[in-house]
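Structure, all two chains, one model.
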Amino acid sequence: MAGSNPNAKPMNLTLNVWRQAGRHTSGKIVEYQVKDISPDMSFLEMLDVLNEDLLRKGDDPVAFDHDCREGICGSCDLFINGRSHGPEKGTTTCQLHMRKFSDGDTITIEPWRANAFPVNKDLSVDRSAFDRIIQAGGYVSVNTGGAPDGNEIPIPKEISDRAFEAATCIGCGACVAACKNASAMLFVSAKVSQLALLPQGHVERKTRVENMVAQMDKEGFGACTNIGSCAAECPVGISLENIAILNREFLAAKATSNNLA
Amino acid sequence: MQLDSKSPEGPLAEKWDKHKFNVKLVNPANKRKYDVIVVGTGLAGASAAASLAELGYNVKAFTYHDSPRRAHSIAAQGGINAAKNYQNDGDSVFRLFYDTIKGGDYRAREANVYRLAQVSVNIIDQCVAQGVPFAREYGGLLANRSFGGAQVSRTFYARGQTGQQLLLGAYSALSRQIAYGKVKMYNRSEMLDLVMIDGVARGIVTRNVITGEVENHAAHAVVLATGGYGNVFYLSTNAKQCNVTAAWRAHKKGAYFANPCFTQIHPTCIPVSGDYQSKLTLMSESLRNDGRVWVPKTVEMAQRLRKGEIKVADIKEDDRDYFLERKYPAFGNLVPRDVASRNAKLMCDEGRGVGSTGLAVYLDFAEIIQRTSAEAVSQKYGNLFAMYEKITGENPYELPMRIYPAVHYTMGGLWVDYNLQTTVPGLYATGECNFSDHGANRLGASALMQGLADGYFVIPYTIGDYLAQTPPKPVDANHPAFAEAKAGVQARTETLLNIKGTRTPDDFHKALGHIMWEYCGMARNAEGLRHAKAEIQKLRKEFWSDVRVVGTGEELNQTLEKAGRVADFLELGELMIDDALDRNESCGGHFREEYQTPEGEALRDDEHYAYVAAWEYQGDNQPEKLNKEELVFENVKLTQRSYK
């Protein structure tokens, strides 16, 4: 079947791929060639081609995380040519298409690099540190049942929209990988902002930010030094403004804390 | 076995309340003595795990993802229905019930659907309380949009990311219970078998996909919230890892599989661009609110367009056939999904398809952009337009989108009674994993509703009824049934690793998908189905003698995971064919070419087929036994669906 652009020519590429057998082994870059790559392929479909090739030869395919392949689940997490999710702005790896590359290119593919994200195998890393940060307070403590009518508390559209923007974080970890300090501030700030903006989140506002920041530190993420590469590389455009909100929330909580423990 | 739906007696509107009163309760102090396993952490699983833990049960939750937040519910775009009637446009619980029954082409159980409509209103309240940022009006109240198959505006949404926001809400509730220690979360753990003791579900066997370790987990009850099986077609809008394995292993242990041939083909997906295609991407149905579907009026014009001799802009308004508006003036572009899909296929079959493959129709936003503004359209659909452009390289603000139907959802699934219990005592199925609410066709924005209804508001009551009748003594994980199930899982892994054949799991999966799409897709006929059945049997044989899996079982081995899932799809595929062959009528997503009206609409046969087909496993390579649950309609009159 022809692609949407019948004039696009297939490409041959050189791939430098990080291979690492397991968490406690050392890894290295291995070079592979892939041929006849259509510009209409997604980046992961290009890796599928490589893996099918490796498998047919009896070699171990490259392990990488992926699932929805439409940019929303946050599973895919490749560091491509030194950038989180590769060269296209506002795009996850699965939505990056090969038309962004040229015939003859060499592409370097690595896993996220951060102490808090240990490598499972090859390009797959363990991001459960993010889950533990959410478990520390990234929720509103309401049990099922007993919620008031959804329209009982009107929320100004501007506020609701801003909360939504923050809530769109997909938890992929690109921000951590892009940061020279491997800081998780953008991730944490997105959830803190969302819930600080909405009236439903106000009750636990102070303890939430204190506990989430404490967990973030405990997981071994680095400090924020206001470079902003996190926001620049975020595939869903989480704004740096959220970090400012996080800092303000944190200071306010520390100054007036209800957390007597 | 006689299938008993356990639908409560009495008037429709009182059934659920009465049932809630009649179910047995577990004493609050006793709840902590019960362990419940929940498999899957999408909307149905995360909401169930969180709610059961809040009640005091000990919950063990499982996902094969690296985090519960990655479940495929996250990709749902358009919205969630609820009978709030906030728009004052005549909505009601009964209307939502009626629309859902009718949309499902009268193949769903009345009592379940009515309950779904009833609890829909609580879901919205619950989600708002969790901090889910639904779209709002300037006055601060919740906004609604319309969706296919309904004439009221009852769909709540969060731009084109409603599934994401709802799932993150359920995930946050789950995370809170994990922090409290009431849920023990097992990431990267894939369920590979169900463990039965004395005819009752007592646990599961999982494989840790990172370490390869095979583990036993015991509990007093097991809830499967493991999603649908659309990936049997290889290409679908499902995420790559979605699979039928958990449900299928439960099926082989005695859970009946209902209506497997009812699959939903979604009308608005981005067309296939090449044979390397790994999945298909949906463009939310909400786009049909404002987008107009059309193809050129003549075959000749479509041919010239495909060859690039003329451009879209060269086709005058009069030469465009807005076929849905023409054929269905009352619903227009908002006809239900099965109707929209079939009509797109008809246009392409006639030779009027567009795009280089001819397998696409246009979804055009020119009019709404002109009537409002590009900015207003972006407000509503910005992320969808951006996604379309990323994938196709075309700008939908300037050129109409090209769309084509793709497999999206499976209405079939494990048979459950009113309590969501399968035919295996102690085994429950929720969300897309069960068959219960959507009949032969699901309406848009109803999957999220059902997943959350089951998890937040149904299972917490109904599972209590079962547990209250189960002694609260610990389940023995050293029972021989566990060792046996575990050995079975390990043996299967060894078998797959030792075949050392020549074809990859993906290769087999694509071949299976091709058979299913050609013969058991948008249109089916007896001859094709019989041919497909033979083909699948042949393919399955080849698989077990020629599949290639490298590496070991004691490491992250994604090829091994894939092989196991494809093996199960190869069995399910045949059952879908059997089911499609049995159902000598057309209804909803099941269109048998032999059974259509002179206008080409689906022709139901209520006299002979108003039943749920529940298939019972009989052993490897044995034909399955068909059990029937007759559907009784006391509150709606069965009519031929008309959206004209």
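The mean pLDDT of chain B is 96.
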